[in-house]
Amino acid sequence: MSTSSARSNRNIQSEGGGSSSDLPISQKSLAIAYLLAIPLGWLGTHHFYLKRPGFGFLYLFTFGLFGFGWLFDWFRLPWLLKDANRRLQNPGDPPRKLLSDAWILWATLGSFGKKNILKLFLQTNYLHYACHSPCCLYFCNVSSSLQ
Fold first, then answer.
1. CB-based contacts of 104: which residues, under 8 Å, 6+ apart?
2. How far is CA 129 from CA 17, 82, 119, 132, 136, in A?
3. Which DSSP string do the residues of the chain spell out, in sequence order?
4. What span, in angstroms and rounded, lies between the C-alpha atoms of 12 and 17?
5. For residue 120, how many other CB atoms are within 10 A of its CB?
């Protein structure tokens, strides 16, 4: 590219014609979000599309929050899309915490409380007989009282 054409490109951009800030921001599509959510939502593909990588990776590693989050997202997808488009239009705004995010995390991951984890890990015989420290004895006693 010659130096004169580079100067003319800079002049055009400085006058406001053709700068990247003047280009319209493409909004996310609800149809594409549903096309990603229904067959592959348990992998978090719709969250990656909506620029929510935290939930995307969470869904990827928990298979859509054990399937419950994936199904619940079919109903909350219009609100997730609205929030994603709002973030695209206003990139400087702080991210919002959605109540539906908190609810879906509590409903799926909250069910794995202390009682269920103790039952899951301490019901096996080799763990029950192998623990001899005071801490393990406490948990083994709690585990046996849960049965």
1. 65, 68, 69, 72, 73, 76
2. 76, 54, 15, 8, 10
3. --HHHHHHHHHHHHTTSS-GGGSPPPPPPHHHHHHHHHHHGGGTHHHHHTT-HHHHHHHHHHHHHHTHHHHHHHHHHHHHHHHHHHHHH-TTSPPPPPHHHHHHHHHHHTTS-HHHHHHHHH-SHHHHHH--SHHHHHHHHHHHHH-
4. 6
5. 11
Rounded to a whole number of angstroms, the distance between the first and last alpha carbons of the chain is 77
The answer to whether residue 118 scores a pLDDT higher than 70 is no
pLDDT tens by residue, 12-38: 444 444 445 555 678 999 999 999 999
Residue 105 has pLDDT above 70, yes or no: yes
CA distance 81 to 75: 11
Give whole-number Cα distances, 70 to 5, 30, 129, 132, in Å: 52, 16, 39, 42
